[in-house]
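Reposting from the mailing list since nobody answered there.

I have sequence plus structure tokens for a pair of proteins and want to know whether others read the tokens the same way I do. The first protein:
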Amino acid sequence: MPNHSKDLSLRYPPPYEVIDGCLYRKMTEKNHTYSRKLCNFTPKIISEITLDDGAVETKRLKLGGEHSNGRPLPEIDISGAELSGFNWLIERWGADCVLEPGTSVKDSVRHAIQLTAVDADKKTLFP
């Protein structure tokens, strides 16, 4: 059972929160509110790069974060299209970065990650 101490190093807007270094989502069911654990790390978008070749624009995201054990996660570069599938997670951050089971967990974590984009560096490159 988490001790519900808040991690202030990364803040997510509601309904998301960080408890003991893990990402949670506040849920309400039948007039009862509780925190549902989504994953044991706190991911964020560090930068968003738009590659514009004059015909097509593509997005690249630099992600970073921290594991609940305090280990900084390496900064990684993924395409915008890769974000929601999470096929990059184990390959890039390791098997100890765990998404909890459930039908909406990936979508909720993706949503929380995207909400961190407001603080990300944004730039456009013309290769």
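The second protein, same order (residues first, tokens after):
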Amino acid sequence: MEFEIFGRKKNYRRLKRGECLHIRSELEKIEQKILREERLTFDDGINLFDCKNLAWLGMLADEVRRKKCGDIVYYNVNCHVNLTNICSARCKFCAFGRDENSLGAYSMTTEQIINLIEDALKDPNMTGLHIVSGLHPTWKFENYLEIVKVIHEKFPNLYIKGFTGVEITHFAKISGRTVENILTELKNAGLQAIAGGGAEILSDRIRNLLCPKKATAAEWLNVARTAHKLGIKTNASMLYGHIETFAERIEHLIKLRELQDETGGFQTFIPFPFLPKNTALEKEIKQTSMWDDLRTMAISRLMLDNFDNIKAYWVMLTVPVAQVALNFGANDIDGTIHKENILHDAGATSPTNLAEDEIIKIIREIGRTPAACDCNFNILRLIK
């Protein structure tokens, strides 16, 4: 059974007649909407997750990516700074967080932070920091603020992307300040962008079951909205492959799309596959398949029509899957990730960092153009 996409004939798998006709009808309608650059609905998203033709999904997403972004793939030469793994939230999907008196618990001193950054600066092209950590039960907001100030003063040429919507909400609660005040203070101290983590699934059902001690869906969205109002760009993410439904994945994407319509402040979207090792869910849930990772990447590109950038985060996907994902709608592969801890505690099998030359090779191998950028997607070097 043949159908056409962008002038090329493709075949569906053999299905029962009724099933085949229904699927072909719905997917052909979706294809035509995408060709006309019309917005997809919730029902369209569900039908895409029901689709078993992965090649078709990838072709659609890659065509949308090509029209929207061209052939540039963004990456950065960056260093992750995970200030502490002591965390009061203790989410069921997290392998990083510890109680204060637990084995392996740590809190970095200012000297240790400086030493880590100086070590990363042995790479002459290192330009940015990614600062995220646990919700420390005794640290005050001023502790975090002082760290940003010290880093910015000592390394004024480094771009600082730091903290998630969950952390910003935590800072507001422990200090009695507003989210706007917290963000203004951090911006004045040198923060240039907000990290995209902590969104998980923007569903109260999911958050009440897995992470009831941290920011609600509404609170996470409020941080992003407030940051955009202040001129601070943020990223967005989705942690999938645990107890959520496909409907909740689509609802999550639509909530992000609606806020992007309102503010335009999201820079990139990162779909994170859940890594169950060393988490409270390890015995109940298996790691996502490459099939699920690639279809989720493609569907994210198709649903998020107002996001320019979709990230294939190689740390969680693995390098080979991230490279393939660049042909499933992604145009951002993150960066060198010097010293990543959080996801490797959850069993990530990828390296803890990649050399810039390796990232360039990964991008060039699929016929795309590498572009080194800062945390706000300003191109610093285009690698021809």
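Reply #1 (J.P.):
I read it the same way you do. The CA atoms of residues 103 and 160 lie 30 Å apart.
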